[in-house]
């Protein structure tokens, strides 16, 4: 890749060598666009680049004192361990005094093209730079720390303190203390029963390491019962955290959103606290919609893409929809359903343990026993999207993504550098912390991550089993750590005085939020509304592109476009056409099926006849009866990659 792909003024530059290859060295440059790595070997030049947007963090390390008889310079040394510089409190007395080098680890997740045509994925890239120009470790650490500080400031998009970047600056402690970014923790609300019930295990094995690499601190709270997250967010001082991360399905996000809207300071909370989601449920519509909106390859590794949304600290606005029923007011972020799709969502709950496949199985059952629903659907057309554009013309599915820079495979630079074994899940140096009582002085890298003389430039892709350094994922209490054990985990046994609120459970909640501009639910609608009376098979309102990982229901929906996409299928559609509709949901081709209408609206009202049926808001069942909704553009803030 040409060097001009990383443009911008050079902030730092250094030359690194590889002892295993003669006449080979690297010129490494850091600019405000990323890292440029120019390889010079026997007169040939090759430049590789790592974009700044792909870098999530970096750490300085030092080699630990080896056992008796080993030598840092000996080629036959089989194992070595590194330790965090920041957690040193003993005057470096446990370090290998023969190796005064400072190692800078740079963690990135770069976009790759898979072997399958058109498929893309993100792969973990670790660049290791060894600084050993000076005789004293403190001097080498100063050089590595200058790079670390500059990278951290660039990643956090804050001003670099140039007074600390001068080579003549001699105060090492100032460099080590100058940590960029928000030091507030992230609030993690984890539902251990979402989907197949693996949220706890997924977080500790796949999400925690990525948070550690980016030095994101967090507090984990495990939900104990329905509406636990809702009450937690409603009653706690949530401003002590920098954001709220929901680990589970769309249900826990629904709880968090409505818990915030039950606070008198809801406007400040939505503005200051971005919402994130780690998809461990059955549907995971929001996580997929965020990735789709940002052009990220979600399907190749949903957990990774969602974790990167958290660590990259980008904030993106998102619409919310105010929903009014006869008995309550709710706020929705995903969809509202009546009919076929709502029936599948609610009636397949008994199959939750099998994950997203429950929807496929129940779809077939409902297709065989097809039902219709009588009632009236009224809507206020959206003036932002022309009716001509909203028609199903076969071109509604826009597959175009922005062209992405394809980064060559990971390389590590320096001499006698450590080689990570191939890991698809992020490997972090904190993972050997296995109990609350373990001292910080025992925090080392996994012994599989070693320095060897046999340097391999390519990052291996083979999957290996990660060391389970936590308590068992099925235990009643596990321990989570993030950079120096600053993060905390609250077990299901902790007494935090959050019990189900009987009054709130009955629906008598005080809901704040913006006031409605629609007529009262019992009032007559104005002539500007369009009304459809009759029998329906499906009425589904979506404001995200996906309502499930494989349900691409509204291809033209954006995160913050101020539009509700109202899908209507009336009675009379054949089972063949309805099956074609269901099969097309994964690609967006369902909009070309006969009998399918997709209408952009600003508000709508559903008035069903009878009392038998299901109505859902974000997958949660609400009272069956009249319901109306309106969109509030850019009301919430979410974490995005």
From TrEMBL:
Q: Which UniProt keywords apply?
A: ATP-binding, Kinase, Membrane, Nucleotide-binding, Transferase
Query: What SMART domains does the record tag this protein with?
Result: DAGKc
Q: What is its EC number?
A: 2.7.1.91
Checking InterPro entries in the record gives: ATP-NAD_kinase_N, Diacylglycerol_kinase_cat_dom, Lipid_Phosphate_FormReg, NAD/diacylglycerol_kinase_sf, YegS/DAGK_C
Q: Name one GO molecular function term.
A: ATP binding
Its GO biological process terms? regulation of apoptotic process; sphingosine biosynthetic process
**Looking at its record, which EC class is this enzyme?**
transferase
Locate the compositionally biased regions of type Polar residues.
481-490
PANTHER family xrefs: LD11247P-RELATED, SPHINGOSINE KINASE
Protein name per its UniProtKB record: sphingosine kinase
What organism is the protein native to? Fopius arisanus
């Amino acid at each position: 890749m040409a060097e001009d792909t990383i443009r911008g003024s050079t902030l730092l530059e250094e030359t690194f060598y590889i002892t295993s290859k003669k006449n080979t060295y690297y010129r490494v440059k850091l600019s405000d666009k990323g890292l440029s790595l120019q390889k010079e070997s026997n007169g040939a030049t090759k430049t590789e680049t790592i974009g700044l947007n792909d870098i999530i963090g970096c750490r300085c390390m030092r080699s630990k004192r080896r056992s008796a008889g080993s030598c840092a310079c000996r080629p036959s040394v089989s194992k070595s361990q590194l330790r965090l510089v920041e957690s040193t409190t003993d005057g470096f007395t446990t370090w290998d005094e023969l190796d005064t080098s400072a190692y800078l680890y740079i963690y990135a997740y770069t976009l790759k093209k898979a072997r399958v045509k058109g498929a893309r994925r993100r792969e973990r890239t670790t660049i290791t730079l060894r600084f050993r120009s000076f005789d004293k470790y403190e001097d080498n650490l100063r050089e590595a720390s200058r790079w670390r500080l500059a990278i951290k400031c660039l990643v956090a998009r804050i001003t670099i303190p140039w007074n600390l970047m001068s080579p003549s600056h001699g105060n090492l402690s100032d460099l080590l203390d100058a940590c960029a970014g928000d030091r507030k923790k992230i609030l993690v609300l984890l539902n251990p029963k979402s989907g197949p019930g693996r949220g706890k295990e997924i977080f500790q094995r796949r999400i925690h390491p990525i948070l550690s690499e980016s030095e994101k601190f967090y507090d984990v709270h495990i939900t104990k019962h329905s509406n636990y997250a809702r009450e937690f967010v409603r009653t706690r001082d949530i401003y002590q955290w920098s954001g709220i991360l929901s680990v589970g399905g769309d249900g826990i996000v629904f709880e968090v959103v409505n818990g915030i809207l039950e606070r008198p300071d809801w406007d400040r909370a939505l503005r200051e606290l971005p919402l994130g989601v780690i998809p461990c449920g059955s549907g995971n519509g929001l996580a997929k919609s965020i990735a789709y909106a940002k052009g990220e390859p979600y399907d190749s590794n949903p957990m990774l893409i969602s974790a990167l949304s958290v660590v990259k600290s980008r904030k993106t606005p998102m619409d919310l929809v105010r929903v009014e029923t006869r008995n309550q007011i709710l706020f929705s972020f995903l969809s509202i359903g009546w009919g076929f799709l709502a029936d599948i969502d609610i009636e397949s709950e008994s199959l939750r343990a099998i994950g997203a496949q429950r929807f496929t199985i129940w779809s077939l059952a409902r297709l065989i026993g097809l039902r219709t629903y009588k009632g009236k659907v009224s809507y206020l057309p959206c003036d932002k999207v022309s009716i001509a554009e909203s028609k199903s013309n076969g071109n509604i599915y826009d597959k175009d993504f922005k062209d992405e820079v394809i980064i060559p495979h990971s390389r590590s630079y320096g001499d006698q550098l450590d080689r990570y074994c191939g890991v698809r899940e992020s490997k972090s140096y904190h993972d050997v912390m296995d109990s609350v009582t373990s001292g910080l002085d025992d925090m080392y890298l996994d012994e599989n991550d070693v320095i060897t003389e046999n340097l391999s430039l390519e990052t291996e892709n083979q999957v290996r089993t990660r060391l389970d350094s936590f308590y068992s994922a099925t235990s009643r209490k596990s321990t989570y750590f993030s950079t120096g054990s600053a993060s905390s985990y609250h077990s299901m046994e902790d007494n935090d005085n959050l019990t189900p609120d009987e009054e709130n459970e009955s629906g008598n909640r005080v809901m704040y939020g913006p006031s409605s501009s629609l007529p009262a639910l019992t009032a007559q609608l104005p002539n500007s509304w369009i009304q459809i009376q009759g029998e329906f098979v499906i009425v589904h309102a979506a404001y995200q592109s996906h309502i499930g990982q494989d349900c691409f229901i509204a291809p033209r929906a954006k995160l913050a476009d101020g539009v509700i996409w109202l899908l209507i299928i009336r009675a009379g559609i054949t089972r063949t056409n309805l099956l074609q509709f269901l099969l097309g949901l994964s690609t967006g081709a369902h909009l070309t099926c006969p009998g399918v209408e997709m209408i952009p609206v600003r508000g709508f009202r559903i008035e069903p006849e009878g009392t038998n049926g299901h109505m859902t808001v974000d997958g949660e069942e609400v009272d069956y009866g009249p319901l109306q909704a309106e969109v509030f553009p850019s009301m919430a803030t979410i974490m995005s990659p």
